[in-house]
Amino acid sequence: MARNLRSLHLQPTIITIIVIFSFVLLGKFYSGSVNKVNSYSEEANHENNVHHASTRINENHRVDLPEVDTQEVPHNGRENATFITLARNEELEALLQSIDQVEKRFNKNHHYDWVFFNDNDFTEEFIQRVSERVSGEAKFGKIPDQYWGYPDFIDQKKAADTRERMKDVIYGSSESYRFMCRYESGFFWKHPLMDNYRYYWRVEPDIKFTCDIKDDPFRVLRETGKKYGFTLALYEIPFVVGGLWDATREFMEKYPEYIHPHNAIRFARLDGDDQSYNNCHFWSNFEVADLDFFRSEAYEAYFNHLDRSGGFFYDRWGDAPVHSLAVSLLMDRNDLHWFKDVGYYHPPFQNCPVDPVVRQELNCECPNIPDVDPGSWYNFAFESNSCIMDYYIALGRE
Ligand SMILES: *[C@@H]1O[C@H](CO)[C@@H](O)[C@H](O)[C@H]1NC(C)=O
């Protein structure tokens, strides 16, 4: 199957069809769910079975023991970890819905902390109602102004022209969406509230967890030494990541020392002579990851390179493709992890365990969304516009 897909990538007409197909589907999603997604979109409109890899196989097909960090001893059975959410006061109800999902399927047994960020002050009501629902400690932070605005090297006229040029694309005319993407790409772990944590799990308003989560995803990462976990991988709208691939290639030429020799860049790159971007990315609205990666010199260098090129403002780069290219390029490919048995639904995409025995064991209630919403999928992973196959190809498991 993977092999077939690779040969597909060599056929330009088929690539075009796939790209157009995913563009149409994404367009459908974005147009259909604008009032469901968070208020950043509203502003855009106004502004005009967890895999326990206890061993690893290295390039020489030898089995290595995982690198367990013995200093990271779990605290009362809990890992050194927190949930994080970027939200606005208006999103309270949608957020409480997400919190209830996380608590019901997972956190009621663990009581992990939860850090909330906002570019404004949270209201008393927000703080009170959210705190009541989170079974761990809820913490509330305001994003410092220096991370929510234009850096001095950005030409604001050019940024305004970009917003005008992109006004027909989802969030294309939004300033705050761009500030958010830049914050999630470059700064969220720099907030003092994050200093005491090693791992984070990102949650957005209006999502669902559709199965019990029995294996603690934080523990899975620590025990296996992995660093980045995802549930959904798909094609980004090519129009919004113009320039991102070129900036990334420039980075590769300029800083070869940061490129991991055993990387997964094939996840994001087509085979063939031009080696262009295939627009694959991990959907970052669900992410469980090791902050040490984002705190690393390599990531800092990559982010600064992208930031200086201006694409967060002269384009509309999302944090999802930025994180995805970074982990594909700078990490060992074995440090990526697909949480394939985490049932997760962010309209219209859903990940649901494939094995019926697992679905039963985890009390899954994956909605049969294609009935309700044609153009949605019961399990997106193996659809033609999912990038899971590219992920497997990148791992070398063709
Ligand atoms: C948790 O991780 C942070 C960041 O790596 C570290 O500074 C802190 O000491 C860790 N805490 C514990 C209890 O291990």
From TrEMBL:
Is-annotated flag, keyword ATP-binding? Answer: no
Please list the residues that make up the active site: 287
Check the record and name the Pfam families matching this protein: Glyco_transf_15
Annotated GO molecular function terms are: alpha-1,2-mannosyltransferase activity
InterPro entries the record matches: Glyco_trans_15, Nucleotide-diphossugar_trans
Membrane topology note: Single-pass type II membrane protein
Q: State where the protein is found.
A: Membrane
A GO BP term here is: protein N-linked glycosylation
> Transmembrane segments in this chain: where?
12-30
Q: What is its main location?
A: membrane
Q: Which UniProt keywords apply?
A: Glycosyltransferase, Membrane, Signal-anchor, Transferase, Transmembrane, Transmembrane helix
Q: Does the keyword Transcription regulation apply?
A: no
> Which GO cellular component terms are attached?
Golgi apparatus; membrane
Report the family membership.
Belongs to the glycosyltransferase 15 family.
Specify the protein name. Uncharacterized protein
Q: Which organism is it from?
A: Starmerella bacillaris (Yeast)
